[in-house]
Amino acid sequence: MPTFTVYRLVPPHNTATLAFHFGRQGIGLEETSETLASDSLFAALVVQAALSTAEVGDDGAPAWVRPFMHGEPPLRHSSLLPAIGELPLLPRPLLPLRLAETATVQAKQLKKLRYLSPALFAAACRGEALPATIIALQQGKVWLTEAEARCLPTPWRPAANESDEAWRKRLKVTPLWQIEATPHVALDRLSAASAYYEVGRVVFAAAVGLHVLVAFHDLAAQPVFERLLTLLGESGLGGKRTYGYGVFAWQRSTLTIDFPTPHRHAVLLSRYLPTPAELALVRDPRSTYQLVSSSGWFLAANGVTYRRQTVMMVSEGSVLAINDGQLPRGHIIDVRPNDTVAHPIYRSGMALAVPAPEVAFES
């Protein structure tokens, strides 16, 4: 019965909403996403560890990273995923979803689905038919049960004397987040010529934010992680932090996800880079997964910007076949382009996964 510590990212004091720039396409600034992958979050934590301590190894890496390098991580964490109030959303598992014959959503809407509530996530992983009444939010990207939707904070919960029909219609047009393009102008230092460009940002509605699930294998690592998360919230997460994007505070809670034994599948809540010994997991015909490319740029300690190596990882929501309940582990990798960079640049492929039973679907 895995129990995760949930860290919800909330607006800091005297701020109403969260705003981030999570770049997605090369060096372009217009594109952004509403989530941040686990390997990027880990890299941001490593930077905070390097800036906040003088204890580094011979390779220049902060001491906080050493247990991860040796295959004994004190914690594992998920990607940053949306949360509505105290309700964390989970990635849609790459399993066929069974809809009831009287379902309020149609099968063609599955193409847009990205996040499930904990109740629907558990039902999907058990291979059960989803409830007939499903509440779809954010143009169908988010699915909740009706009971969960009625417990959401304002403005998503039903108003006094509001009919169910009016409430459901209002939910369809009440966004959880919006992706905006903010205009900017750059001036040439010599000619003073102007150049117009836009920067994408994701702005969450009030009471909506992000969360990260953490499984602590060593409780002594929890205060260190929370200190790094606090520093990260003060310095900002993502791009364009000089414009005020990326700052946050955090709140802590717990989430338990339980499935009956025996466990034959593992559903990923983070990105995953298998070790050579774990390649059989992705080669198993019972596994269903997607590969994503992790690439981009980094600022080295010498002040020079480099392009890091591209790494292919298994995405969140992927389902891997396991034996004897042994969950995938993964490893971290140094992605510096060459030896001219004096210190390592780590990306995490350490897996955070939920054990689930083997699902048998009717033909």
UniProtKB/TrEMBL annotation:
UniProt protein name: CRISPR system Cms protein Csm4
Recorded GO MF terms: RNA binding
Organism: Chloroflexus aggregans (strain MD-66 / DSM 9485)
InterPro entries hit by this protein: Csm4, Csm4_C
Superkingdom per UniProt: Bacteria
Annotated coiled-coil segments of the chain: none
Record-annotated Csm4 C-terminal domain positions: 265-355
A single BP term in Gene Ontology: defense response to virus
Classification of source organism: Bacteria, Bacillati, Chloroflexota, Chloroflexia, Chloroflexales
Family: Belongs to the CRISPR-associated Csm4 family.
One Pfam family named in its UniProt record: Csm4_C
Keywords, in A-Z order: Antiviral defense, RNA-binding
